[in-house]
Amino acid sequence: MVMSRVARRASRRKKKDYRLRRRCIYIAMRLAPIIIRFRRDRREWVRKEGEGCDEARMRRNARRAVKAFIDLGPVFIKFGQWLSSRPDLLPQPYLEEFAKLQDDVPPAPIEEVRRIIEEEFGSLEQVFDSFDEHCISGASLGQVYRAKYKDRDVIVKVIRPNIHYTVERDLEAMRLLLPYAVRFLDPNIAFSLESIYYQFVETIREEMDYRMEAENLKRIKRNLRSERYVMIPDVVEERSSSRVLTLEYIPGIKVTDVEKLDALGIDKARLVIRLHRLFFKMLLKHDIFHADPHPGNISVKEDGTIVLYDFGMVGRLDASTRLKLIRLYLALIERDPARAVNILFSLGALAPDANRYVIEKGIALAIEGMHGRKVDEMEVKALMELANRTMTRFPFRLPKQLALYMRMASLLEGIYLALKVDFQFMKVLSSLLQEEGLIRDAYIEEIRSSIESIVKGLSDYIAVAPMLRDYLERNLMEDSSNSSGSGRLGSRSKLSSSSALIAGSIITSSLLISSAIIMESNPTLGQIGFAAAAVVIGAIMIARKV
Fold first, then answer.
1. Is there a contact between 298 and 271 (Cβ–Cβ < 8 Å)?
2. Non-local CB neighbours of 356 within 8 Å, separated by 6+ positions
3. Cα dihedral 357→358→359→364 (10° resolution)
4. What is the mean pLDDT of the chain?
5. Of 528, 280, 527, 292, which is closest to residue 403 (Cα–Cα)?
6. Phi-psi sector, 317: left (phi>0), alpha (psi -120 to 50), beta
């Protein structure tokens, strides 16, 4: 009996391994030509700095890649969407084509959907007053239906049948194939892709648990309860589980449906401002933010109220990272690219060997654009090409939460471009930071960070003092061993004077170097540091005369 159970388990494991191997072979065959074409396109893009490339060919190759990802199923559709927000990895033609990758998949048979609902709650006829079997939205991980519950219109989101098996199988196949795929690519891409893969695994598993999505929704709704122009559906708790999520039905117009917005007289410029204020308030003030604001997840009511849907993909920033982002935006508002670059390095958003000069110049141009000032087109073109080459040679290894922030920002930009309105991001951001009292916190953090830099500089330099003192003691004592008593007394005096001089010199050097570094980000504190160094130098000179 025991042997038969062991044999059955071994047989199932063998079948599972066989199916995984077959899937790996199929994926490899579909992606091998894509990877080879991409390798050639990316090398050409980097070598020519984006100028004079065969963009038509690159777009054709990118479309083939998008089709392959769609054919390979939900995991690869999601992964392609992740890649679409990484300009350090994909040439521009690929970015534009991958941005079109829609999470739109034909629904599963209604019989399988019914089975999942009934496994969770019982007979469908008793669970809901009525249930419309026509799927109104089919995505890669789930599908959405309308129903009535206790005389209320509701939306029922049901996980795709067998999706957990499909996702875990394909994630394992990706893990096994990744080391082989990166051999055909640049080392820098390999460095980034490994990081992206593990971030992606964590995120897609979170999206498959509807209990987690319900908690995300309730938390964000609680944080935004004072915002009068935002609506978030209520969760119907007694009809929600890990595989089924039932929500209040709130209809609206798709945020990018320009014709309907115009017909209702909706002010599109005001709408764009409200959207950016809303999402950047979540990012910079709250502990959780909606990380998937694509047009399908945002609608607008007739009075201009914004309705948010789908809280499966969210980001969470700790207080330290949030303050660094506020400092970054404050540097952009104050038109200080050098300070912005320092903060990007501290966030880990830039590789240590990234070209600081190019990044600073690129940020300076971005600041001019965000403030609404005209920049010379020839200068923009030259520096954008240089920046593109730099980004592709020094890919980022972004933490997961910063990667989600980049995705959020890029999707918001897509909405703004679709609505075609005049919009100055810096004005909106500056107003938000002032109204929410975030500027004071940013300045306090800026001063604290600067003081830490000075203290670290002092600690590093003072650590050298004992070694120098020991060296001088040994040498001066050797000299004094051949001298008279008075000579020894003079040597001790000389030693004491030399030690004081060394200590003072080290403190002065550390103050000067630290102040020079801090001057870029905090001129006032830097000037105080220079003044302190001058005081120490004066004290040393007086001590030597005495």
1. no
2. 341
3. 90
4. 79
5. 292
6. beta
Pure H helices in 158-209 = 163-182, 187-207
Tokens 């801090």, residue located = 518
The type of residue at 42 is: R
Which amino acid, residue 113?
V
Q: Is 139 left (phi over 0), alpha (psi -120 to 50) or beta?
A: beta
Is the pLDDT reported for residue 351 higher than 80?
A: no
Nearest alpha-carbon partner for 194 in 397, 431, 441, 440: 397
List beta partners, residue 147: 131, 154
292 part of the active site: yes
- Is 94 within 8 Å of 58 (Cβ atoms)? yes
The DSSP symbol for 377 reads H
Report the C-alpha gap between 287 and 438 in whole angstroms.
14
Give, as one character, the DSSP assignment of residue 350.
Answer: S
Task: Give the pair of three-digit tokens for residue 173.
Answer: 């196949």
Q: Determine contact, residues 271/261, Cβ cutoff 8 Å.
A: yes
Full 3-state SS string of 461-521: HHCCHHHHHHHHHHHHHHHHCCCCHHHHHHHHHHHHHHHHHHHHHHHHHHHHHHHHHHCCC
How far is it, in rounded angstroms, from Cα 72 to Cα 34? 13
Choice among 292, 310, 336, 441 that is catalytic: 292
Residue among 405, 414, 423 at smallest CA distance from 271: 423
Residue 228 corresponds to which tokens in the numbers above? 């009068």
| Angle in degrees, 0-180, between the axes of helices 163-182 and 187-207, rounded to the nearest 10 | 170
Listed range (23-27, 342-346, 448-452, 522-526) with the worst mean pLDDT = 522-526
Render 220-248 in DSSP notation, one character per residue: HHHHTTT-TTEE-PPB-GGG--SSEEEEE
Tell me the pTM: 0.74
Q: β-strand 230-231 against 142-149: which pairing, if any?
A: unpaired
pLDDT score of 465 more than 70: no
Q: What is the rounded (10 degree) CA torsion for 445, 450, 454, 456?
A: 60
Q: Measuring CA to CA, how many Å separate 197 from each of 184, 204, 254, 308, 403?
A: 17, 11, 31, 28, 12
Q: Is 265 left (phi over 0), alpha (psi -120 to 50) or beta?
A: left
pLDDT above 50: residue 381: no
Measured CA to CA, the distance from residue 424 to residue 138 in angstroms comes to: 36
Spatial neighbors of 362 by CB under 8 A, at least 6 apart, are: 383, 384, 386, 387
Q: 348 pLDDT exceeds 70?
A: yes
Tokens standing for residue 97: 């084509």
The pair of three-digit structure tokens given for residue 248, joined into one six-digit string = 């209040």
